[in-house]
Amino acid sequence: MRYELYYWPTIQGRGEFVRLALAEAGAEYVDVARSKGGVSKMMAIIGGKGTRRPPFAPPFLKTGEFVVSHVANILMYLGQHHGLAPKTEGGRLWLHQLQLTVTDFVAEIHDTHHPLGPTLYYEDQRPAAKRRTDEFWTSRAPKFLGYFERLLAQNGPYVTGRKLTYIDLSLFQLVEGLRYAFPKRMKRLERKLPQLLALHGRVAARPRVKAYLASEQRIPFNEEGIFRRYEALDR
Amino acid sequence: MRYELYYWPTIQGRGEFVRLALAEAGAEYVDVARSKGGVSKMMAIIGGKGTRRPPFAPPFLKTGEFVVSHVANILMYLGQHHGLAPKTEGGRLWLHQLQLTVTDFVAEIHDTHHPLGPTLYYEDQRPAAKRRTDEFWTSRAPKFLGYFERLLAQNGPYVTGRKLTYIDLSLFQLVEGLRYAFPKRMKRLERKLPQLLALHGRVAARPRVKAYLASEQRIPFNEEGIFRRYEALDR
């Protein structure tokens, strides 16, 4: 069976957390919205076409049987079906809550450039974006990343222990994204995150991830996604 | 077995979505942080005391075996163990993604009074809060609530069909909270949400929910939680 992934075609965005898991799983999939007419197909499903369970927003994954939406939910599904998650109930709940912490963190990363709401342009909210970004790097990024740093120190080499799971792929992407968007600020914080950086290297070296990153499937970072490089916000 | 719920003792906040599910399930639980020394106990667990799986933040639920955190994750757990969720994989994934949409909506509601970040006071971000709140009521609230309105019209009387699940309890709480925080704005939007209002009434009338709402367990709304009534933001 070939999965169908639906996400905005020109950005990594939230979809990238799913693409990385699909790559590591070696799962076959079509990135539907990146082919002709794909965005219209995506919007039709959101509008309820062909399903009584329309997702609220991309990304979502069609599995043959289900339309699964929300990154953490898709990863929970893929984790269970492709060996990227523990098999016990306790292990699965633990891993899922770690991913939900990433979800919250991603929302806060997005809000650094969109503090006044997702429907206004960055250019219309620059002063607020500066204040929110300062606060983010003072209080929030150290707290979120420090949490995972501690777990890695306790459990390593991967966040939940000996085996890679989907949370490790997401943490890799967070490091990539923060390095892209805030090279100066991230460089300073990285001094306190040796375990996380080691994990980043470990994930980058996995053959399937490496091949994916070098392929055309990997969309370069740009100023439309979650991670945006704005000089004014990086100091 | 008696659950232990850990959440801030003086607010409904995110914990209230869990309290409502515990009430409807008729589950026995202690609201630990509301008794003497409870907040310290909560912070100790977050600090890693007695668990190798420390949650990032409240709310979290200690079952006999696990520490489960994040509202949507806790509800998924309770739903499965107390008949507040479907039994099939597809049904569970669908319900969970609806709850994750509520999670996103709750974060945006919080941001109406905290657009510059959760670590600053509202009083230090009033102009930004006004702009974000306007945007929220123009674009976001109609989109989120309209989504659930459509699902109710399609599936009713409950969001996923004939049976109440945990998402219905959360939607009840959203209506309660938005009515408290933004009485004028919500009143106008309610004209377009007849199904959601009917659901709100249906949930409020359920014997266990009704008893819970009338009890001292239900903390009144106030200006410390997610839903805050600030005159300046309601027009």
Structural features, described:
The structure is a homodimer of 235-residue chains. With 235 residues, chain A is mostly helical. Chain A has a domain of 118 residues: Glutathione S-transferase Yfyf (Class Pi), Chain A, domain 2 (Up-down Bundle), CATH 1.20.1050. Chain A contains 9 helices and 4 strands, in the order E-H-E-H-E-E-H-H-H-H-H-H-H. In chain A, strands 2-1-3-4 form a 4-stranded mixed β-sheet, with helices on both faces. In chain A, helix 1 links the parallel strand 1 and strand 2. The first copy, chain A, is globular, with a radius of gyration of 18 Å. The relative contact order of chain A is 0.14. The interface between A and B is large, with 48 and 48 residues.
What secondary-structure arrangement, pairings included, does this model have?
Two copies of one chain form a homodimer.
Chain A: E1 3-6, H1 15-25, E2 29-31, H2 38-46, E3 60-62, E4 67-69, H3 71-81, H4 89-113, H5 126-155, H6 166-181, H7 183-190, H8 194-204, H9 207-214
Parallel strand pairs in A: 1-2
Antiparallel strand pairs in A: 1-3, 3-4
Helix pairs in contact in A: 1-3, 1-6, 1-9, 3-4, 4-5, 4-6, 5-8, 6-7, 6-8
Descriptive keywords:
4 strands, 9 helices, Glutathione S-transferase Yfyf (Class Pi), Chain A, domain 2, 6% strand, mainly alpha, 235 residues, homodimer, globular
Short description:
Chain A is mainly alpha-helical. Chain A contains 9 helices and 4 strands; from the N terminus they run βαβαββααααααα.
